[in-house]
Give the backbone structure.
Amino acid sequence: MHELSLATGLIEQILALAAEHQARRVTRVMVTIGPFSGVVRDSFEFGFNILKQEREMLREAVLDLETPDPVYLCLDCDKVSVIPLARPDDQPESAFKNIGPKKCPWCCLPRLSPKGGTELILNQLEMEERHV
Ligand SMILES: [Zn+2]
């Protein structure tokens, strides 16, 4: 399972940062998942929540996931556009269709290429300092 190994990597990264800051525990973890990363949010969250149980320092950590709107580059007019994802609860049937390239809002041609958005980034950590 791809998401589980990503969650493992993330946890290692968090533990290293927490150690560096001499934190007592981590309370919140903010992660950005790119719209073209192919990461399944729910599976990633599920994996993280299982793995964190093994680590005293992370047991209370809340995972905050954010996915920015996808950005496309038009191959015809070279303009960049942001085409927001449909909210799955608004249109359950078209939630997946919407991630495919649509039409360029500038020239109306359909040759759009995904731009970036393949990342999984640890944005921010909230930690409790160890009181000396
Ligand atoms: Zn265009």
